[in-house]
Amino acid sequence: MSEDILIAARDLSVHYPLSKKSLFGPRQVVKACEGVNLDIAKGSFWGLVGESGSGKTTLGRACLKAAPITRGSVKYSDEDVSFDLTLIDKDDLKEYRKRSQLIFQDPYAALSPRMTVRDIIAEPLEVMGMTKTREETDERVREIAAKCRLNLEHLRRFPHAFSGGQRQRISIARALVSRPHFVVADESVAALDVSIQADVLNLLKDIQKEMGLTFLFISHDLSVVAHVCDHVAVMYLGRLVESAPTRELFAAPRHPYTKALLSAIPSLDPDDSGKAQKLEGEIPSPTNPPPGCKFQTRCPEAVDICRKDEPKLEHSSKGHEVACHRWQELMG
Amino acid sequence: MTRLIDVSNLTLQFDTDEGRITAVDDVSFTLEAGEVMGLVGESGSGKSVTAKALMKLNASNAHYGPDTKITLHLESGPVDIMSLKTSKDLQVVRGGAISMIFQEPMASFAPAITIGDQMVEQLLIHTDMNAKRAREVSIEMLDRVGISDAATRFRQYAFELSGGMRQRAMIAMALSTSPKLLIADEPTTALDVTIQAQVIDLMKDLVSDFGMGIIFITHDLGVIAQTADKVAVMYLGRLVEQGQVRDVIRNPGHPYTKGLIDALPQLDDLDQPLTPIPGDIPSPLERPPGCVFNTRCSANLGAICSSEIPVFHPVSDGHQVACHLYREGNAK
To answer: Residue A332: pLDDT band by 50, 70, 90 thresholds?
Structure first.
């Protein structure tokens, strides 16, 4: 494994068993995430997109050891330590919790209404015992609050006094106060208005550069991902179907699903409506995925082989991987 | 084209524990039959409250201003909505002449009553159909909005349908009484992009088939560009700009509209930095004096903006902007 990879997943699968319908019936399993390989480079802003039900949140949580890993492995390695998340023991897991953090989607639900902003931001430090004295804690809190453009007066107030954008900045401050190396941002701007969304995205990007963080940025919004991420992976029904540097992906998408996703974004030009390549139907249920390529039921290009064999991720060019039987044919 | 609805000087206040707040302030617009009007703005701008006012559907603590006049033009003659007092009188418009599609389709269907029973119920209330005919019409409508196997779906409950399917059923239900005006409140916001594209297509088809007027509420300018004929931009309860969709999106006049467009991540230019609108939308309890946008405006002219409420100035045919920049003598 090369030096500069922070998170490396190999054949990562997360299965959730469903309760049995009858005593002797087979136990159904939701394969939320199946056979995923990924390498997240240090200091990158790594995007993960897909529709709801594609397994992007599960994959993000598996990288934080917050979802049960059924098969495969996830390895974390920074300058000082490396952990294999499938074999990690309790003490190492505590250490990993300091180095990895999660920023949630809904800034209204993620903050306790009974705690002041100062206490909310300080809580991770206290829980993880990272600071010795109250003064030290306060200093860390003030430092990160300033980075997240919150002023000192804000720290004394309760979350209800803040708007959505400000609350999201508080959530970000809380996630970053333990100085993590790896941050998973799960739909962190989806609940915000466009005018505020741009502000929070710029903030995340600035902080990432300044603190040298590695981000896994999960979103359903391709245009947001296009603007902040260096590398984008597309997920469909638990599988990665395409993964490439951002510019490459948006300039030359290879997988029919990526193409369809791109063309489904409503254009700001009122006269530009004809080009959209519309997908029929909806994402199938993960309890009963179709055989072969998981996308074949909706794919406009599907042929016989797609209904039988599941395609593997293969390199189409440097850093660009695609899982489709026909990508070469379709290029022409 | 024939005039469908006239709204003039709509002002709406709510009594709350913290005092009386102004949600809609002096809003006027008109809509023709067969026309789609987009109503855009951030959360808290008063879009939904405005739309609900057309059916007097707001909570009992709502106070309508004395100059408010809403006239709905039906074949049987004009209806003065403000003069309708009892819910029996209002039944003519609520669900009859005006139907509404809500944002969250799961929350809009009763969970313990089948889709079919809910559709039939409203037909029995609003039309003189008998139960058998109402059932036929409902199944026809479900089929019309692209739900396969409509007769089976008719007998199912909302939880048995997927998100996109539920939104289609919602649309079918809203249209089955043949309303003259359809209010769609963020109908695609909860949907994935690929499903959103399907629903937008469906709505476009329905306008051309049924010839009704639509008020389409959304915060997504891309969706507006693809569906609406004209657009009205709202901020903190006031209309700040309105006009044909091409004029407003290509030549936005109001600094707020410009800000909204600049904040939108665009796929065709990834190098362009995201420009947020500075600050947050003020609380309705602290409405700024003068122009409501003056606290966040990049083109603030000083004293006049914080003291005088701007009136609408025409910039081109049918395109008008409420901003002091366009006053006479203030060449743009």
So the answer is: low
